[in-house]
Amino acid sequence: MKEIIKEILSVVLDVPMHELDDFSSTQTLEQWDSLNHMKIIAALEEHFSVSFTEQETLEMQSVKLIEYTISCHLSCPPE
Length: 79
What we know:
By secondary structure, the protein is mainly α. The chain has a single domain, classed as Orthogonal Bundle (Non-ribosomal Peptide Synthetase Peptidyl Carrier Protein, Chain A), CATH 1.10.1200.10. Helix content is about 60%, strand content about 0%. It is built from four helices and no strands. Helix 1 crosses helix 2 (about 35-50). The chain is globular, with a radius of gyration of 12 Å. The two termini are about 25 Å apart.
């Protein structure tokens, strides 16, 4: 899953995949602005067939947090 997330970020942000790690975030990547954040969210929702809440969208500010949120959607039963 992490490789897919990194691939999506790489395409949207135009950053080589090898430069992305768990700690890549809105704070460490200049290209990860609010517009690109929404593009990332849309691409993730489409690829993983999930729908994020507004709160989740705001919280997914790093590769690690994105992976955690998607894992929850794929493995946790709906509330």
